[in-house]
Design brief:
The structure holds two protein chains of two kinds.
Chain A lengths: L3 E6 L9 E7 L6 E2 L4 E6 L4 E5 L4 E6 L6 E3 L3 E7 L55 H4 L8 H4 L33 H10 L17 H11 L28 H16 L2 E9 L1 H12 L10 H15 L5 E4 L4 E4 L5 E3 L1 E3 L2 E3 L2 E2 L7 H16 L5 H4 L4 E5 L18 E5 L3 E7 L2 E15 L5 H16 L9
Parallel strand pairs in A: 12-16, 16-17
Antiparallel strand pairs in A: 1-8, 2-4, 2-7, 3-6, 4-5, 6-8, 9-19, 10-11, 12-15, 13-14, 17-19, 18-19
Helix pairs in contact in A: 3-4, 7-8, 7-10
Chain B lengths: L7 H5 L1 E2 L23 H26 L13 H8 L7 E3 L5 H7 L3 H6 L11 H4 L10 H16 L5 E6 L6 H13 L3 E7 L2 E2 L2 E2 H4 L7 H4 L4 E5 L3 H16 L5 E6 L18 H8 L3 H11 L5 H23 L19 H15 L10
Parallel strand pairs in B: 1-7, 2-3, 3-4, 4-8, 7-8
Antiparallel strand pairs in B: 5-6
Helix pairs in contact in B: 2-3, 2-4, 2-13, 2-14, 3-4, 3-11, 7-8
Classes of the chains: A alpha+beta, B alpha/beta.
Chain lengths: 475, 371
């Protein structure tokens, strides 16, 4: 009568559903439940349904929290079930894996009602919280394109990397550009899977390039140490042990980044303008500030100067700080600046924002930037930091890049990419001099911002960076 | 008594022998049809209804637990199914839709067979000739044609059995049902069209497709019809017996509209709260078929605790057998798909089976199979 742990996996509650959201648990760990006692409310794409317990026993573990979207087939609750007797099904339940493997008709994981076998084992995604969290209401529904809405709240909201810089660190296995897998028949695919051969790297010798059994076997021999005959047709194995590509499931931050990028790129007509500025004066100012006592304990960077310049220019060109509300057919003009900063984090690209950046002085702005980047690098950026941005900066200069055409963070009207500061021969007082030069790239949503407004905004930032004293004429 | 000369007023009358409060109501025309139903018979009808509701609840739970792919609940329609199902003779033949699990229970279906299709384990649940009930038809209304054809065969055989076809209010809008009625009337075939008007064709309310009571349609085909309170098991028994008698004695087809209510979702993949008013469910819950009969039994002292406990125990036992049969059902073999396609050997099919076997063999010795 030793208790047995029985897992209950989320079934396909409708017809062909792949996931459901746990709405509420009606039981807690330690509760004794009867067979068919309602243990949870679950919302599928079709209905909210009550889940009856498949076992009589004691709840041992709740695997998922309410509000979590769970893939069909994932365990959601475990029970301590008395070894024998009780109402619980005495024979193998859905979790065949846990019971004696002696039964002759072995069940595939693709049990009736479980839908297709789930191949990926990604972490369950969370659904967007409804308005009300520590996020200004005006901005949460700002999540302009519906497709990117879920990304805005709990899961990292993501923004445009401008031009993707060359991977600075050994990049974690990046998938190759999507490519159609060469044709093959199911038995050959199974053979390849059994032998651990990646079909995408093979060239088929069958009709119309069909990969046949012999191709797979040849590839296996090619990989084996004692190869008998490696013909010229055998695929050349590269230095990485024969694998010519690595395939990584699209999920997590990458998936959300992609959705946000696509939503943004195909919703907001982008215009990008470039301005190359002699920032020698700004760099000199930066040097003086670093040396000054007031900024002694602050890490002040060109980014801080650009951020401050952007806030000042934004005050003169407010249309750049607005949002297109398609649903309401309204333009939302922000009277505050939540300044997003694109940051490379362990989880991928994120765009946390500095709240009310327009109210911050240069010193506070610099501190906020240091804070934000450290939090992001530590992977501790919270949902509130990621939502509600009104405009963004991406600093591609840190990667040694001059310019790019950044894609808007969904729901924002503009994004500024700052390039690296280079010493270049430049016109200075009618002569050629070696000056410190930076290129600014500004993308804006042409639905909201006309060329004139975008140009003036960019020119203002340029003016400030070229001659910081010009701020006096602007504020 | 229905006939082709009845007026709209009499045709619209709802035959009721037990009121929602559980009081026996006398009806000169139909009382004689249930004169033999004594206390024990009423208790048996009560047990049937409780058991099929329990079967229904257990199957719904099994679907929620991932053991069935889908289930079409009959909750609320117990009286219509038991009242008509228990009126049948063994040699009568039933052609039903997918919701008549209560009728199948009356026919003596094996509980595991009842779930086979819904578990995705077989393309058909049972041998129709073993219980004289065809396996459920999912195509809306198609079974009415099968029933009429079968009834025409009964005529040819010179037998006195009857074909009974079950369908819903939505099916009456299908061409098949109308064609079936044309042929049934033309041949005066011994067939009963038993329509469970449960008020909803999935999310479409019956009033959208029927501006007059559905029972009024049949006389247009020359088929007498009757409207019965579908939540009154005794009235359903009475009208079905009358229709069976007409069919057996050469009187031809009858159309029965059993006015009932689908208290649950269309299937387990449906959420009725999205399209219907909660008040409506409450109104119909007050007309519950089981509570009504329990009330009548109770008032006559026929439902002491030991009876209701015994009924509950029977229901629980049936549910446990149903569950056990479901979860221990072996997976079908890959080649089972070729079984029961034709009743006789077929060379084309054999060739396909041979090819398929070769194909399966090409996966190698591992029994895993290709996914």
């Amino acid at each position: 009568m030793a208790p047995v742990i029985k897992e209950f996996r989320l079934p396909d509650l409708g017809e062909g559903l792949t996931e459901s959201e746990i709405v509420a648990w009606h039981v807690a760990v330690g509760d004794t439940v009867e067979l068919n006692q309602v243990i949870a409310d679950v919302e599928t794409a079709k209905a909210v349904v009550e889940l009856p317990s498949p076992y009589a026993g004691v709840v041992a573990k709740l695997h998922e929290q309410p509000g979590t979207v769970v893939e069909v087939g994932a365990p959601i609750v475990s029970f301590d079930v008395p070894g024998a007797g009780g109402d619980a099904p005495a024979t193998d339940g859905p979790d065949q894996s846990r019971s004696e493997p002696a039964e002759p008709p072995r069940r595939e994981p693709n049990l009736v009602g479980y839908g297709a076998a789930v191949e990926k084992s990604g972490r369950p995604a969370r659904r967007a919280r409804r308005a009300g969290a520590a996020v200004p209401a005006t901005t949460i529904d700002a999540a302009a394109p519906a497709a990117s809405a879920p990304a805005i709240s709990t899961e990292p909201a993501v923004t445009p990397p401008p031009a993707q810089p060359p991977a600075p660190a050994p990049a974690p296995a990046v998938a190759d550009a999507p490519r159609e897998r060469p044709r093959s028949t199911p038995p050959v695919r199974k053979l390849a899977r059994d032998l651990g051969i990646d079909l995408t790297g093979l060239t088929g010798s069958g009709p119309n390039g069909l990969i046949v059994r012999e191709d797979v076997l040849a590839a296996q021999q090619g990989n084996a140490p004692a190869s008998r005959q490696i013909t010229a047709e055998a695929p050349p194995s590269s230095g990485t042990g024969g694998e010519r590509v690595t395939r990584t499931p699209i999920r997590g931050v990458r998936k959300h980044t992609a959705a946000a990028m696509v939503a943004s790129a195909f919703t907001a007509p982008h215009v990008t303008e470039f301005l190359t500025v002699d920032v020698t004066a700004s760099m000199e100012l930066l040097g003086r500030l670093k040396a000054s006592r007031a900024f002694a304990d602050v890490r002040i960077t060109p980014l801080a100067l650009v951020a401050k310049a952007l806030c000042i220019a934004l005050d003169r060109n407010p249309t750049l700080n607005s949002r297109w509300d398609e649903a309401a057919q309204e333009i939302v003009q922000h009277h505050y600046v939540n300044l997003g900063i694109a940051a490379a984090t362990p989880r991928g690209l994120m765009v946390p924002n500095i709240k009310d950046a327009h109210e911050l002085g240069l010193r506070e702005l610099a501190e906020a930037l240091t804070d934000l980047t450290e939090t992001a690098r530590a992977g501790k950026t919270g949902p509130a930091d990621l939502s509600g941005g009104t405009i963004s900066i991406t600093n591609v200069g840190v990667f040694g890049i001059d310019a790019g055409t950044p894609i808007l963070n969904p729901g924002e009207a503009a994004i500024l990419a700052m390039g690296s500061v280079r010493k270049m021969p430049w016109e200075y007082k009618d002569e050629i001099a070696l000056r410190q030069v930076m290129t600014l790239s500004l993308s804006f949503d042409h639905r909201l911002v006309d060329g004139e407004q975008g140009s003036r905004f960019l020119a203002d930032i340029g003016t400030i960076l070229r001659d910081p004293g010009m701020v006096l004429t602007m504020v | 008594m229905p006939s082709n000369d009845q007026t709209d007023a009499t045709r619209d009358e709802l035959i009721q022998l037990i009121t929602p409060n559980g009081e026996r109501r006398s009806n000169a025309a139909y009382d004689p049809w249930v004169a033999d139903v004594d206390g024990a018979a009423l208790q048996a009808l009560y047990e049937d209804m409780v058991v099929i509701r329990r079967i229904d609840a257990e199957a719904t739970a099994l679907q929620r637990q991932g053991e069935l792919a889908l289930w079409p609940p009959l909750l609320g329609q117990e009286a219509a199914q038991i009242g008509s199902g228990r009126a049948l003779r063994e040699d009568d033949f039933v052609f039903s839709s997918y919701r008549e699990n209560g009728v199948a229970y009356c026919r003596g279906v094996d509980l595991t067979d009842l779930l086979r299709v819904w578990r995705g384990n077989a393309s058909s649940g049972w041998d129709p000739y073993a219980i004289n009930m065809a396996t459920p038809q999912v195509i809306i209304g198609a079974q009415t044609l099968h029933a009429t054809g079968y009834a025409m065969g009964i005529l040819t055989d010179g037998a006195d059995s009857v074909a009974v076809t079950y369908f819903g209010d939505g099916a009456t809008s299908q061409g098949d049902v109308n064609e079936a009625m044309v042929f049934a009337a033309s041949y005066q075939a011994p067939v009963i069209f038993f329509c469970q008007n449960n008020q909803w064709a999935i999310s479409e309310p019956v009033r959208l497709q029927a501006h007059v009571p559905i029972a009024r349609r049949a006389p247009g085909f020359g088929i007498p019809s009757v409207r019965v309170d579908g939540n009154d098991v005794l009235a359903c028994l009475a009208v079905t017996r009358e229709a069976l008698d007409r069919a057996r004695t050469g009187g031809g087809p009858t159309f029965i509209e059993a006015v009932t209510y689908r208290m649950g979702p269309h299937t387990t993949a449906d959420d009725p709260t999205r399209y219907r008013d909660a008040n409506e469910l409450e109104d119909w819950a007050a007309k519950d078929p089981i509570a009504r009969l329990a009330g009548l039994l109770d008032s006559e002292g026929l439902l002491p605790a030991e009876v209701s406990d015994a009924v509950k125990a029977t229901a629980d036992e049936v549910a446990a057998r149903l569950r056990e049969g479901c979860i221990s059902m072996p997976e079908p073999a890959a080649l089972d798909v070729f079984k029961h396609v034709y009743s006789e050997p077929n060379s084309w099919l054999e060739r396909q089976q041979d090819h398929y076997e070769q194909y399966l063999t090409s996966f190698g010795s591992s029994e895993e199979g290709g996914r």
